[in-house]
Amino acid sequence: AMNSTLPYNAADVTGASDSDTIALTSVTDGAELTLSGAVESMSLDVNGASRFDILEFDAATTSVSIDAGAALRVDDTLTGAGVTTYTVTGAGAVTLTPALGTAVTSYAAANATGAQTILAGATNITITTGSADDVVDMGATLTSNDTIDLGAGSNTLRVDIEGLTAGATDLSISNVDTLRLDGINTSGAIQMDNLAIANIRFDDATAANLDGGVITLTDIATTSTSFAYTGGGILDDDLFFSPVTVDYDTTTAIAAATFSISNGGLVADDMVVGAINANNVTAITINVSELGQAAADELTIADVVADNMTDLILTADGAVVFSGIDGDILDTIDFSAADGDVTAQL
Question: Nearest to residue 73, comparing CAs of 91, 104, 98?
Fold first, then answer.
């Protein structure tokens, strides 16, 4: 777990294509490694599970290869101002949660069988992953200039939607099973034309002012019918979710869509959800779990707006208040699976 600085002899690394390999075996949590010297290509040969607080490459290093025979994790700081490419192979899980760096244009892990968990922190980047269940966090940098292909497995793409706008150009995203939208405290939008993503998740439920903005999913595919509002998993926490507009790219009705509201595994306190606007959906099901169990705890949904909605179904483990339900052709309301009182304003 010691902190190590390895400075290369300047006379030995004067070339333009110097390379070296660092073998890692059982580095324990808290270690720091700093590589100093103009070595253009660095390889990390991970033979035993290794975990760093800090991993620093020299500014002259442009490419990093990771042979993950075992797990590699970097927790706090990953520095490499000149690194443009990461190449990852092997069955070990690679977790790089400090941002890769703004200069990175390629994270190539298509041949890796270990799970990749990375924070990109770069624009105009190409990311490919392999056969495991991968999680790629694009933060607030996602644009149509990025190319993301997460391969096989059950994969999650995270995006901070706060402040993003839906551009006219389609995004280049494939093999993503869950789109997790973080940073939903104010307005944001994402262009979802051509994205066949089954599950969409709204996180970061800290928007106390529900009038602060609306999250809009534009031109969403008809295959995207499962939406989850997920709190931070803090016991007895008040949850506030921003309003969401689901804009389907179709003129015909979608048979059904489900909106699930929970607190990440722990019982919440009160929950407040801004308006759910989902036109072109025939049947809307709202599933509520982990709602606070005190007598005064309740979920309040500001409004449900759906011009094609004929059926509204609710399951809940506590009291629910609909401040408004706006459905011109609504003919069936089923609250029979709600365990608490339900109040609805039509």
Answer: 98
Looking at residue 307, its amino acid is: D
SS3 12: helix
Tell me the two tokens of residue 325.
């339900």
Radius of gyration in angstroms for the set of CA atoms belonging to the chain, rounded to a whole number: 23
pLDDT value at 108 more than 90: yes
Q: How many Cβ atoms from other residues are within 10 Å of residue 66's Cβ?
A: 23
Residue pair 89/69 in contact (Cβ under 8 Å)? The answer is no
* pTM of this prediction exceeds 0.85: yes
Percent of the chain with pLDDT over 90: 80
- The Cα 218–Cα 204 span in angstroms is 21
Per residue in 210-256, pLDDT tens? Answer: 556 788 999 999 999 999 999 888 899 888 888 999 999 888 889 99
Show contacts of 66-70: CB within 8 Å, 24+ apart. 66/90, 66/94, 67/43, 68/92, 68/93, 68/94, 68/112, 68/114, 69/45, 70/46
Cβ neighbours of 11 (radius 10 Å): 6
300 exposure class (CB count in 10 Å sphere: 0-12, 13-18, 19+): middle
Distance from C-alpha of 21 to C-alpha of 92, rounded to nearest angstrom: 18
CB 72 within 8 A of CB 48: no
Token couple for 202: 């709204």
For 207, the token pair is: 């928007």
Q: Where are the beta strands (DSSP E) in 106-192?
A: 106-108, 116-119, 126-128, 135-137, 147-149, 156-160, 172-174, 178-182, 188-191
Structure tokens belonging to residue 175: 């093999």
SS3 11: helix
pLDDT of 186 strictly over 90: no
Question: How many Å apart are CA 346 and CA 260, to the nearest integer?
Answer: 21
